[in-house]
Amino acid sequence: MAITSHVLCFQWELFFGFQGLFGVPELSAPEGFRVAQEKALRKTEQLVQRVCATPPGPQTVLIFDELSDSLCRVADLADFVKIAHPEAAFREAAEEACRSIGTMVEKLNTNVELYQSLQRLLADKKLVDSLDPETRRVAELFMFDFEISGIHLDREKRKRAVDLNVKILDLSSAFLMGTHLPNTIEKRLLPEGIRHHFELAGDHAVVDSLRAEAPDDLVREAAYKIFLYPNAGQLKRLEELLSSRDLLAKLVGYPTYSHRALQGTIAQSPETVMEFLEKLSDKLSERTMKDFEMIRGMKMKLNPQNSELMPWDPPYYSGLIRAERFNIEPGLYCPFFSLGACMEGLSLLFNRLLGVSLYGEQPVKGEVWSEDVRKLAVVHESEGLLGYIYCDFFQRADKPHQDCHFTIRGGRLKEDGDYQLPVVVLMLNLPHSSRNLPTLLTPGMMENLFHEMGHAMHSMLGRTRYQHVTGTRCPTDFAEVPSILMEYFANDYRVVHQFARHYQTGQSLPRNMVSRLCESKKVCAAADMQLQVFYAALDQIYHGKHPLRSSTTDILRDTQERFYGLPYVPNTAWQLRFSHLVGYGAKYYSYLMSRAVASMVWRECFRQDPFNRAAGERYRREMLAHGGGREPMLMVQGMLQKRPSIDDFVNTLVSDLDLDFETFLMDSA
User: Fold this and answer.
1) Is residue 96 among the annotated active site residues?
2) What domains are defined for the chain?
3) Is this structure's pTM higher than 0.90?
4) Which position among 452, 487, 519, 622 bears the catalytic label?
């Protein structure tokens, strides 16, 4: 009886035209997820039959993409709703939809007839040569997805590949959960003077983080040693995850997991990644040593009895040096960065660079999951509406504490010639406004807003024929380029001056305050980058040749010694907290390489004039428009008008660390 009343209620809402989430009519109630997924699964079955009956040609790729789109439109939306919706019923229904669609994807990836319909196309050289580059690339990407599942293998090996994929999924989930679990220690083992810094539970102290910003050296040391104390279960999960990934890679024809993960990226191979990391480490080493000396000097000044520099020291002491050299108290900056001013600044920048404006639209009832979510229409001056951005910007209970971009619907050219407009969500965690105070952003929040909006514009301005390569669906070492590039705009006075006004007085943010902020970020930046090189190298070694030459902890110790320089602390296992090993396995280097590309694009195209419309149009044409539909290095080459080398990447990253003395001279003039 209860089920029937739910269905009646649901049909009643549809009859009266209530909107569902993101304007999807079915999603006006949690039960709608089942309706949406069943609809998607029915359509999938029809498309599978259709593609298997279609002679090989461009139409094969179009049907594959439509098949992918019908599943992604439910799965992507559900992926977001399951973590962000405030109502448990919606979250649970979305979780179930993800499982259901995931099962269907596994079935499709092992459907031999479906695989053969694509294989027939790619095996015909004449047909392949007749395909345009984007269609050929998309066909190859679909084939790559098939072969990861071992579909090209004999029955026994195919079963092993499927089993390994399931095992890797389970181990990844369990390892990820373990990276966040707190460690406990008997209270009596902690010095009495620092016990109150930790949560106490009976006779135990609970340590749930590194407490990297704690002023007391002893608190940071205790947190580091306890939080990173090895857990045997987590250690076993990591070893199994790495060996299972290696087995799967070998089974489907790659020498290592890293070779498989890097196919189609800017780097292309693990050898190139290690060359990049080793050259960067060599170039950084002298600067890093100077940074460590400076940090050691600050520690000695405050704690002469114990001035040896340890891994728990740099974040805290580099913050002190920054504060001492530059007066960058966030409270001084916040009044100039109201959310409204920052959004106006973004709209103005996009308008001058790309001919794009952001317009607020009133969502209809049921379209958004929280009343403070804002809907933006992205409109081009001659092309019209490009897509929608839903801005979920404000803190609320149980909302994940992460700033991120979600694709809800990918752009693609439909069979009727219309373009399916992209829809994305930007999620931040900003404070709410009050009656007397608008939402004010710290400089870090403002930079994050620009960063995430870079992802959003990548999604909006991509005009790919296929949703499989829409917007940010591109290799990881290219996906961060548009977002990091936006950070350069956020740190340029000519851009900031256009929007940063005191919310009460209307006064512009003084130029010397912007300069101080930018230069403060370069304090100990070499040591920070060296740490990222160490993490990236560790990730490569873990996903390189197996069996590993020694335990994951011994590899951590040796890699830390070689690529970082501060001593390994016995009885710690930082790798067991390295959550990025799950989502960025063999690809942690991507952030550094994306930063190098973004820096080169900034220097070559925008540093002289951040509002250069011709450069903006070229940026859209050469980089943003293609999503993942073109090889990333070809996009970089098109933008820079040259093919950058590893040395170019390394040199641009290192030169970014130089202090801008011209700025200081201008400020002191």
Assistant:
1) no
2) 21-145 (1.20.1050.40), 182-229 (no CATH)
3) yes
4) 452
